[in-house]
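Appendix B. Raw example, untouched.
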Amino acid sequence: MAKRFVAIWFPFLKTDWFVRKQPTLRTLPFVLASPDHGRMVITATNHHAEQEGIYRGMVVADARVITPSLNVLDDQPGLPGKLLKGLGEYCIRFTPAVTVDLPDGLLLDVSGCAHLWGGEENYLQQIITRINSFGYHIRVAMADTTGTAWAIARFGTGATIIEPTKQVSALLPLPPESLRLEADTVERMHKLGLRKIQNFIDLPRSTLRRRFGEQFIKRLNQALGQEEEILLPLQPIELYCERLTCLEPIVTRTGIEMALQQLLASLCKRLQQEQQGLRTCCFKCYRVDGKMIPVEIGTNRATCHVQHLFKLFEEKLSSIEPALGIELFTLEAIKVEELSTMQGELWQKAGGLNDPALAELLDRFTGKFGAKKISRFLPAEHYWPERSFKPAQSLFEENTKAWKVDRPRPLQLLPSPAPI
């Protein structure tokens, strides 16, 4: 399967967030500023301020000369990271692999995802529409490499969807800063007259490496697809995970139950084929308003019994509030173990701890009353009666010592005799 990546750029990330908090700023030019060596320096501008010639790095006093009515607000440190983390978690509904690209972007590995939305054009349009509805201005691009998608989103002027294997021709008219280079490297390239990628892409790599360093070659190779770029997902991608996208938002419990049953059937079938069973499982519901509701269950032993797992979830489905509707369901197997198969006995009178029915019964008790409400004890060799037993580490811990049943034993020894 061919790799495809999407880059999302938020040119006014922080100021758009301030507009969400204060809608009256929507039509006014305003900037964010922070103190720097005794003066206030602009750290972010909105679209209206940018149109009037105000830019980041300008001193507030100089900006007020251009626009006397300029609104200046205090910047908040660490805000971009918090905003991008929240937006990245929302974009998980489009792909499980979302990476935060500080200070103002997201990178998405969308390989094999676009067809679920009817093609790449519809896929990108859905992303743009959803994020715009939150009040953020964005530019989006899709390409075979993260470097090309990043460059087109920020510096491209034509198509935002680069056809497979066409990244080289798409990069040629772009400036060298589109390769995510350091500022001093870009400055040197402009002084040498290398103002577009097409001016140096055919030069020998040894010459470019000697002049601009190894990092320059790495960024160029990543953009061209000649070197792999590893992205760290915002949330770890579980090895066993099933996703169900809804054509229409689900608002009823019946719809949630149907989605859960379908995901359980798919996940358990896959686990059975690999001789694995569930121990811990999480059912996540992604709502239209951007919130995610998780429901987690655990079992005492590995299992692929769909109906049993559904009953464990069923007791917790009442905690799911669909609000305006749920548009994506995921089921993640957080912990799996090898599925042990035991041969049944024809005339077995008591199943014991190895009886699957007992394990399922304890699972339901645990889910309803809590794990601390069920305890199991094993014998321990000690003269003191209150120390002659110990709690078991798990339901299936083997008993290595026999219980003392040959004579009655008191439950506790008193420090001094007490009259009967």
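End of appendix B.
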